[in-house]
Amino acid sequence: MTTPNNDVSNQKHEYLAFTLGAEQYALDILQAQEIRGYEHGDPDRQCAEFIKGVVNLRGVIVPIVDMRVKFTSTRRLTINSPSSSS
Hints:
Elements: E1 15-20, E2 23-28, E3 51-57, E4 60-65, H1 67-80
Antiparallel strand pairs: 1-2, 3-4
Protein backbone atom coordinates (compact mmCIF):
# COMPACT_ATOMS: atom_id res chain seq x y z
CA MET A 1 0.00 0.00 0.00
CA THR A 2 1.39 3.41 -0.94
CA THR A 3 0.65 6.61 0.90
CA PRO A 4 0.91 10.11 -0.54
CA ASN A 5 4.11 11.91 0.35
CA ASN A 6 3.10 14.98 2.36
CA ASP A 7 6.70 15.96 3.06
CA VAL A 8 6.90 19.77 2.94
CA SER A 9 10.33 19.63 1.28
CA ASN A 10 8.74 18.09 -1.84
CA GLN A 11 6.14 20.85 -2.23
CA LYS A 12 6.86 23.80 -4.52
CA HIS A 13 6.46 27.29 -3.12
CA GLU A 14 6.31 30.54 -5.05
CA TYR A 15 7.08 33.92 -3.57
CA LEU A 16 6.57 37.53 -4.53
CA ALA A 17 9.86 39.31 -3.76
CA PHE A 18 10.31 43.06 -3.60
CA THR A 19 12.75 45.63 -2.29
CA LEU A 20 12.03 48.67 -0.13
CA GLY A 21 15.13 50.82 0.08
CA ALA A 22 17.99 48.49 1.01
CA GLU A 23 15.74 45.81 2.56
CA GLN A 24 14.34 42.81 0.69
CA TYR A 25 11.00 41.16 1.46
CA ALA A 26 9.11 38.13 0.15
CA LEU A 27 5.50 37.04 0.53
CA ASP A 28 3.82 33.77 -0.34
CA ILE A 29 2.45 34.40 -3.84
CA LEU A 30 -0.93 33.05 -2.73
CA GLN A 31 -1.23 36.04 -0.36
CA ALA A 32 -1.16 38.47 -3.32
CA GLN A 33 -4.54 39.27 -4.81
CA GLU A 34 -3.17 40.94 -7.92
CA ILE A 35 0.10 42.23 -9.32
CA ARG A 36 -0.22 45.45 -11.28
CA GLY A 37 2.09 47.97 -12.81
CA TYR A 38 2.47 51.31 -11.08
CA GLU A 39 -0.22 53.89 -11.77
CA HIS A 40 -0.12 57.51 -10.74
CA GLY A 41 -3.17 57.96 -8.56
CA ASP A 42 -5.28 61.03 -8.04
CA PRO A 43 -3.57 62.87 -5.16
CA ASP A 44 -5.53 63.84 -2.07
CA ARG A 45 -3.72 66.45 0.03
CA GLN A 46 -5.84 65.65 3.10
CA CYS A 47 -4.32 62.16 3.43
CA ALA A 48 -1.24 61.09 5.38
CA GLU A 49 2.10 61.65 3.65
CA PHE A 50 2.48 57.93 2.84
CA ILE A 51 -0.78 57.89 0.81
CA LYS A 52 0.34 58.91 -2.68
CA GLY A 53 -3.14 58.93 -4.18
CA VAL A 54 -6.07 56.70 -4.99
CA VAL A 55 -7.09 54.64 -8.02
CA ASN A 56 -10.40 53.21 -9.10
CA LEU A 57 -9.89 49.44 -9.31
CA ARG A 58 -12.97 47.89 -10.90
CA GLY A 59 -15.26 50.27 -9.02
CA VAL A 60 -13.40 50.14 -5.69
CA ILE A 61 -11.35 53.13 -4.55
CA VAL A 62 -7.92 51.82 -3.50
CA PRO A 63 -5.20 53.93 -1.84
CA ILE A 64 -1.66 53.88 -3.23
CA VAL A 65 0.65 53.53 -0.23
CA ASP A 66 4.35 54.36 -0.37
CA MET A 67 5.62 51.65 1.99
CA ARG A 68 9.04 53.29 2.34
CA VAL A 69 7.43 56.41 3.75
CA LYS A 70 4.95 54.36 5.83
CA PHE A 71 7.66 52.21 7.43
CA THR A 72 9.94 55.21 8.02
CA SER A 73 7.09 57.17 9.64
CA THR A 74 6.19 54.21 11.85
CA ARG A 75 9.77 53.76 13.00
CA ARG A 76 10.14 57.47 13.67
CA LEU A 77 6.92 57.54 15.70
CA THR A 78 7.95 54.47 17.67
CA ILE A 79 11.38 55.84 18.50
CA ASN A 80 10.20 59.36 19.33
CA SER A 81 6.95 58.52 21.09
CA PRO A 82 6.61 60.09 24.57
CA SER A 83 5.81 56.70 26.15
CA SER A 84 9.14 55.22 24.98
CA SER A 85 11.25 57.87 26.74
CA SER A 86 11.45 57.38 30.48
